[in-house]
């Protein structure tokens, strides 16, 4: 298969002010795209009211973006070979800004969903290409800094999304969650055109694998819609979910067979011949899925059961970014000297220990008591994120790095979607089961009601209060159950990293072996 490798390095390392500015711009592109995966979440009720639709219908604003992005991410390697990685990145950057205008100007739900689909298609290539470009612009001995920048933007953005979305929607208007992308994306895209105008961006002939592309769209689209709609439709009790599951399964098998036998596949699955890539990407997916489930579960619990507003729930999760930013340079330096597998192991086990810590939460927990484990999540998250992305990239050959970045990020995205859907379903089911058990064990409920009524409380109010207490206890027990499961998932993910062959010296991000 032809590749860009024969034409020399895609990007020459940079130095000085140009390096700093280019790194900031590339990192910003990744931040904007990842931010848009969560910034609309808390704005759905506002958007629904503005466009005259139900909140359930408005959730397609989230689903449409996720589906489009999930389809585009694994195509990145092929697009980079065919058109040049730098060209694809800059074009996507500028398109992201232009399409954000259309989203903000939408007057109907259909128009907004169409805009979000286009936004996801444009943004999907930015996530993996931002990593490969950051690794290219830094000299080999400083490549870890590129990984640090990418890791910070990828982890902080989904945390910042709900905070920004809530503040903007409440104080300015939901349209501005899209309009804020415009000046940043245009400035970033035009800035890269100027900064990298003398860089070599080779291309290679690559035919359009139409069958592979079609199968990819079918199975990824069916899977993502199934995950997003499943919890609203009672999962496999729904005919729609069962049909989507069958389509996704058949489409996936057909896609694998076709891509592994096609001479010029649109997704280069041959990167899975590298044991290091397989083990690192599985660790990446499993640990990120557990982490993403955590940052989905905690805001839901705080808003629905602890009385927090969307903004304060965002602050409660966003606090992890403080030590994440501070510790990143230290962890990056350590990754150059210590076995990166050990750093990943400690990081993921640390996340598991924090999940276990959260099993001690009580209904009267204060913001400060909850903030401590969230604050300490930051360093462990970076210990996991920085080396594991480096292991994914360094395990393949140079001309396969765009493919490796695309596929590993696709696996991470799907793992996050699976985890978010499963944790919400498990949480709701556990709450119902716990409530039934608590009601079944209450032998003094009549006496409790009589005592409350004797103090002057009406029967209706007393019943409501007792029901609320039972529901509150069932929810906190369900939350603790989920934290226990997540702790086990982290421990499992930590074991996977030892399947990666021990790197010979510092991680080599240049494709050498």
TrEMBL record:
Gene Ontology terms for molecular function: transmembrane transporter activity
- Which Gene3D superfamilies does this UniProt record tie to the protein? MFS general substrate transporter like domains (1.20.1250.20), Multidrug resistance protein D (1.20.1720.10)
Provide GO CC annotations from the record. Answer: plasma membrane
Q: Origin, by domain of life?
A: Bacteria
Entry-linked PROSITE patterns: MFS
Any one Pfam family match given in the protein's UniProt record, by short name: MFS_1
Q: Can you say where in the cell this protein is located?
A: Cell membrane
Checking InterPro entries in the record gives: EmrB-like, MFS, MFS_dom, MFS_trans_sf
Keywords, comma-separated and alphabetical: Cell membrane, Membrane, Transmembrane, Transmembrane helix, Transport
Transmembrane region positions?
19-40, 60-79, 86-107, 113-135, 147-168, 174-196, 208-227, 239-258, 278-300, 312-330, 342-359, 371-393, 475-500
List each copy of the Major facilitator superfamily (MFS) profile domain by range: 22-505
Membrane topology summary: Multi-pass membrane protein
Q: Does the keyword Mitochondrion apply?
A: no
- Please name the CDD domains in this protein's record: MFS_LmrB_MDR_like (cd17503)
Q: Where primarily located?
A: membrane
Give the record's family classification. Answer: Belongs to the major facilitator superfamily. EmrB family.
UniProt name for this protein: DHA2 family efflux MFS transporter permease subunit
Q: What organism is this sequence from?
A: Sphingobium fluviale
Q: What lineage does the source organism belong to?
A: Bacteria, Pseudomonadati, Pseudomonadota, Alphaproteobacteria, Sphingomonadales
């Amino acid at each position: 298969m032809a590749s860009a490798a024969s034409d020399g390095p895609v990007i020459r390392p940079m130095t000085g002010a140009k390096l700093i500015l280019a790194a900031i711009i590339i990192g910003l592109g990744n931040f904007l795209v990842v931010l848009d995966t969560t910034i609309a979440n808390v704005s759905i009720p506002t958007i629904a009211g503005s466009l005259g639709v139900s909140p359930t219908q408005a959730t397609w604003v989230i689903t449409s973006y996720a589906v489009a992005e999930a389809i585009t991410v694994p195509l990145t390697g092929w697009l980079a070979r065919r058109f040049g990685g730098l060209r694809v990145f800059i074009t996507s950057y500028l398109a992201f800004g232009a399409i954000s205008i259309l989203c903000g100007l939408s007057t109907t739900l259909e128009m907004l969903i169409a805009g979000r689909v286009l936004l996801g298609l444009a943004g999907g290539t930015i996530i993996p290409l931002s990593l490969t470009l950051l690794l290219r612009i830094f000299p080999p001995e400083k490549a870890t800094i590129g990984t640090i920048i990418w890791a910070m933007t990828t982890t902080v953005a989904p945390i910042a999304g709900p905070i920004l979305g809530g503040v903007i929607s409440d104080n300015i208007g939901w349209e501005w969650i899209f309009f804020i992308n415009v000046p940043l994306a245009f400035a970033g895209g035009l800035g890269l055109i100027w900064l990298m105008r003398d860089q070599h961006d080779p291309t290679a002939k690559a035919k359009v694998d139409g069958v592979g592309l079609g199968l990819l769209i079918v199975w990824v689209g069916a899977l993502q819609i199934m995950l997003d709609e499943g919890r609203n439709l009672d999962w496999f009790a729904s005919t729609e979910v069962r049909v989507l599951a069958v389509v996704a399964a058949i489409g996936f098998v057909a896609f694998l067979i076709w891509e592994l036998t096609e001479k010029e596949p649109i997704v280069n699955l041959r990167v899975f011949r590298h044991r290091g890539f397989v083990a690192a990407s599985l660790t990446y997916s499993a640990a990120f899925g557990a982490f993403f489930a955590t940052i989905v579960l905690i805001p839901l619990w705080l808003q629905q059961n602890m009385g927090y507003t969307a903004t304060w729930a965002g602050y409660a999760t966003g606090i992890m970014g403080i030590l994440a930013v501070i510790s990143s340079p230290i962890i990056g330096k350590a990754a150059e000297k210590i076995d990166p597998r050990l750093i990943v192991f400690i990081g993921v086990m640390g996340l598991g220990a924090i999940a276990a810590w959260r099993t001690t939460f009580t209904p009267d927990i204060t913001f400060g008591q909850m903030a401590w484990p969230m604050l300490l999540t930051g360093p462990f998250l970076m210990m996991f994120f920085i080396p594991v992305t480096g292991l994914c990239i360094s395990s393949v050959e140079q001309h396969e790095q765009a493919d490796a970045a695309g596929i590993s990020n696709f696996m991470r995205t799907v793992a996050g979607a699976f985890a978010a859907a499963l944790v919400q379903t498990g949480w709701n089911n556990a709450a119902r089961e716990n409530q039934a058990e608590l009601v079944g064990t209450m032998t003094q409920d009549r006496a409790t009601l009589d005592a409350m009524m004797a103090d002057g409380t009406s029967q209706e109010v007393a019943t409501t209060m007792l029901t609320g207490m039972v529901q509150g206890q069932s929810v906190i027990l369900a939350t603790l159950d989920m934290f226990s499961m997540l702790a086990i998932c982290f421990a499992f993910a930590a074991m996977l990293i030892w399947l990666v062959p021990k790197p010979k010296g510092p991680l080599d991000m240049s494709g050498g072996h």
